[in-house]
Amino acid sequence: MKNNIENGIYIPDDLRKLFTIDEWMQRAHPETARTVVLVTDSGMLEIAKEDLPSEFNFEGAQKAAAEYREGFRCATRHEAIEMYDARFRGLDEAFEKIGGKPATNIYWTSEADPDPEYSSIGAFVYNGGGTGYVIDNSKYNTHAVRPVSAFKK
Predict the structure, then answer these.
(1) Which of 16, 80, 93, 99 places its Cα 20 to 30 Å from the Cα of 51?
(2) Is 29 left (phi over 0), alpha (psi -120 to 50) or beta?
(3) Which residues have CB under 8 Å from 121's CB, separation 6+?
């Protein structure tokens, strides 16, 4: 739930209070932030400031994202597109300002092929650095993981 917060990019503190990037950068150690929160008309998405250190197959990606922090997972296809669009509205800069890295790899989503009778080995990935496309890929390939969570205060 947005709770009347303007669309944009925010940094949460340990008490879950949201700060604009400019407000957060006034802190003595802004690099201590672990995530950013993307607020859109669709809701509030908390995003890890960096990719996980390895690449994973689909099942490994789901497990690794869930182990990042409580409530985290791989992004849905819709969330992945929202993240890609936000790259051009300051998301990359926000990651860099807090010591993170832009989300520019090919990432697993949380979604397997919706028709397992057609393909039980497919799952969706999105290209964060190219054109932002989402495409079906073999679950056995390895790709990056950028954990996300619905932001909760």
Answers:
(1) 16
(2) beta
(3) 113, 138, 139, 140
